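I'm stuck. Please check this protein.
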Amino acid sequence: MTPAEDRRFAGLLNEDLQALKLTAKMRCFKAGQTLFHAGDPGDGFYLVESGTVIISAIVDKDARPLATVSAGEFFGEMALLEEAPRSATATAEVETRAFCIGREELLALLEHRPKLALKLIREFSHRVRSLNQKYIDEILQAERLAMVGRFARTIVHDFKNPLNIIGLAAEIAGME
């Protein structure tokens, strides 16, 4: 196995690598080119050989990046396994080469190679845990900002009463 092949499918067994090579089709994408849009049917499972792909979703009418996928990593498996439309958009950040494996080929491969299926399950678990941690971090950050806001309101309120008294006293002192 060449170093590029080793890097391309990091962590896969050699026989799984050979099976993937037989069933995969190489696709090339230019920088900025969309591989698929959210809502598209799940037609393929992608393994990035070179380049970078940004996975993004629309949040409050803005595209928000969810993940960056680099050489040796994969994406697009959930739509295939769930037989559901794509939940995000994939766009090549730079010129990218990726292998694409169709639904039937992937399912047949997983059926005959339980170790590969186990590796995919472990990767899914890792991704879910990472996403959960990101969500928890965002919630904690939002809570911290809310706490700072409440603290600032309290300080403003506490200063407002004495300043009102000083203002009234100044008005009375200024009267004839």
Notes: The longest strand covers residues 62-70.
